[in-house]
Amino acid sequence: MQDYAQEVGALTMRWVKRLSREKFSMLFTLFQPMVFWLIFFGNLFQRATDTQVVQAPSYIAFLAAGVVVMTILNNGLAGGVDLLFDKENGFLERLMSTPISRTSVIISRFIFVMTITSLQVLVILGVAYLFGVHPVTGIGGVVVIIGIGLLFGIGLTAISMALAFSVKSHGDFFSMLGFLSLPMIFLSTALVPLTAMPWWMSWLARLNPMTWAIDAVRPLILTGWTAALPSIAIVVVVMVVFDAVCLYGAAKAFQKTLG
Amino acid sequence: MGVTVSGPAIAPAIEAAGLSKVYPGGTTAAEDISFQVGAGEVFGLLGPNGAGKTTTLRILITVLRPSGGHARVLGLDVVEQPTQVRQLIGYVPQERAIDRFLTGREHLELLAALYHLPKAHAAARIDEVLSLVGLAHKADEVARNYSGGMKRKLDIACGLIPSPKVLFMDEPTLGLDVESRLKIWDHIRELKARGITILLTTNYLDEADQLCDRIAIIDAGRVKAMGSPSELKAGLGGDVVSLTLSPADLAKVEGLSQAIKGQAGVRAVSTKQNVLDIRVASPESSLPAILSAVTAQGCRLEFVEYHRPRLDDVFLAYTGRKIKDE
Lengths: 259, 326
Ligand SMILES: Nc1ncnc2c1ncn2[C@@H]1O[C@H](COP(=O)(O)OP(=O)(O)OP(=O)(O)O)[C@@H](O)[C@H]1O
Ligand SMILES: [Mg+2]
Hints:
The complex is a heterodimer of chains A (259) and B (326). Chain A is mostly helical and 259 residues long. Chain A has helices at 2-21, 23-30, 33-44, 51-54, 59-78, 81-89, 91-96, 104-130, 138-166, 170-186, 199-206, 209-222, 225-258. The two termini of chain A are 22 Å apart. By secondary structure, chain B is α/β, with parallel strands linked by helices. Chain B has 2 domains: 12-233, Rossmann fold (3-Layer(aba) Sandwich), CATH 3.40.50; 237-308, YebC, transcriptional regulation domain (Alpha-Beta Plaits). Chain B has helices at residues 53-60, 82-88, 104-114, 119-133, 148-160, 178-193, 205-211, 229-236, 253-261, 283-296, 311-319; strands at residues 14-22, 28-37, 42-46, 68-73, 76-77, 89-92, 166-170, 197-202, 214-219, 222-227, 239-245, 266-272, 275-280, 301-307. In chain B, the strands form 3 sheets. A 6-stranded mixed sheet of chain B has the order 6-7-8-3-9-10, sandwiched between helices. Chain B has a 4-stranded antiparallel sheet with strand order 2-1-4-5, covered by helices on one side. A 4-stranded antiparallel sheet of chain B has the order 12-13-11-14, with helices on one face. In chain B, helix 3 (104-114) crosses helix 4 (119-133), helix 4 crosses helix 5 and helix 8 (229-236) packs across helix 11 (311-319). The two termini of chain B are 32 Å apart. Chain A binds chain B through residues 3, 6-7, 9-11, 14, 17-18, 21-22, 89-91, 93-100, 258-259, and chain B through 58, 61-65, 83-84, 86-87, 89, 91, 93-99, 101-102, 106, 109-111, 113-116, 142, 158, 162. Bound molecules: adenosine-5'-triphosphate (ATP) and magnesium ion (MG). Adenosine-5'-triphosphate (ATP) is lined by residues 23, 25, 27, 29, 47, 49-55, 94, 203 of chain B. Magnesium ion (MG) binds next to helix 1 of chain B.
C-alpha cells in the first residue's frame, strides 16, 4: 500500500513537472480555448438567441453549463495523449519493466487529468461570474458540478487511454479524437436545448451522456436545488453505466498491449 | 577475457528454453531460442537488424509474453513471477526512452520511487550512478539539451538505479561515436567486475568480441551458434586465406572457386564479387596448391592475405552472409 502510494505519487508528479516545464502550454491549459467559447460565443449569440427558448436570463448564462461540460469532454478525450507518446518512444516499456502495479501509470494519469479538469471548471465558472452568471446554488452547487465533471471525466479519460493503447500511430489517435468530439458537442444540449433541435438531433442527443451531464449542471447554475436534484440522480446512474463500459474497454486495451 | 568456459557451472542467472514469439501480425520474431547465462557473465546476443534480439530481451524482462517456451531469471519464471523478476533486474532499452522535459536527476528520482527505494537511500544511490556514468555535471539540466551519448548514459544510469543483479542492455552503444563506445565498454567491464550478470544485444562484431564472455549468434529468430568468441573462432578450424582477383577476371571466379574446393586441406570457399575467402586447415600447406589453381585458371591476383578467423568469419560461416549485408 505504501509502495503503491509512492509509485502513484512519483508518476503523478512527473505529469505535473512536464506541464510546468512547458510554460506556454501551462498558460493555455488554464485559460483554454473554452474560455473564448464562453466569452465570444456567449456574447456573439446573445441577440440571436431567444431567451424564451433557452429558458435563461441570457445566452451566456445558458451556455455556461455547456462550456463547463465541453471542457470536461476535451480534457478527458485528450487525457491519453501523453501515454500515447510514452508508448511510442519506449518510456512506457521502461516503466513497465519496473516492479510497479500494472495500474499505477493509469491511476496517476486519472489523478492528473481530473485535477487539471477541476481547476479549469473553476476558471470557466469564474469567467462566467465576471459576465454576471452567478450559480444560484452557490458553493455547494459548484462542488456538485465538479463531482459530475469527475464522474464524466473518468469515462472519457478511459476512452482516450484505450485509444492511445490500441492505435497504430498518433495520426490515427488525433483523427479519431476529432471525429468523436464535434458530434458529441453538437449532438448535446451544450449550445441549444433539446426543444430547439430538429427531432432527429434531439433524439440522438438523448443518447449522448454529455446531454445528461449538462442537464444536471444547468439547473445548478440557473434554477436551484429542487429542479437540479432529479437530474443529478439521473446523471449519477447514467455516468456509473458509462464509466463502467469505458473502464472495461480500457482494461481490455491495456491488457492487450501490456499483458 | 582469457579463460573460456563453455557453459555456466552453477545455477544459471538467465535461462531461456525454447522461447518463441509470433507477433499478432503474424511475424515470427523468435523461434526455439535457448541459452543459459551464468552468474557474473557478460552474454551477448549478436545478430543483424530484425534478427529477434529485442524480442528475446523483451520476453526476458517480462514486458512481452512468449508464444512458446519458458524463461527464468535468477530462478524465477518470467511469466509466472513477473513482479519478483522486475525487482531484481535493470533494463536499458534500445530506443532512448527519455522524457525530454525532465532533468537527468528527475528521471532517476522517478525510477528510484518505482523501485520503492526509501528517499534517503535514493538520493545517495542517484549520486552514485550519476558519477558512475559520468553525468553528474549535467544532472540538473533537462534531457532535451542532452547529446545522443549523454542520453545513452542516462539510459544506463536508469538501468542501474535498482542495483540490479542482472542487467539487460539492448544495443548499448548503437549510434555512438568511438570515444563514447569505448567509455560505455569500460562501464560494462566495471559492472562485470562488481559481479553483475549482463545480457546485451549488439550488431557490432567487435563489441561482441571484446566485451562478451559468451555470445549467441541469432539470425532470423533462431540461434545459429553459441560459445565464447575464441571457441567460436577456433571451432571454424584453421585460418582464412583471402584472394582478391583482378576485376577483369570476375567471370572466372566461379570456376576458380570450384577448382579450389577440391584441394586437400580446404574447408570452405565463399565468394563475393572478385574476392574469395578460403578457410583452410593450414595456410602453409594449402597456399601453394591454391596459387597453382589460380595460375591454372588463368586468373590474375591483385591481393592475397590470410588471417586467423575473426568473428565476421564465424558469422558468415553460420548464417551464410555478412552481418552488414543488406
Ligand atoms: N511489436 C511488433 N509487432 C509486429 N512485429 C514486430 C514487433 N516488434 C518487432 N517485430 C518484428 O519482429 C522481428 C524481430 O524484431 P526485433 O525488434 O526483435 O529485432 P532486433 O534483432 O532487435 O533488430 P534490431 O537490430 O533492428 O533492433 C522483425 O521482423 C520485426 O519487424
Ligand atoms: Mg532490437
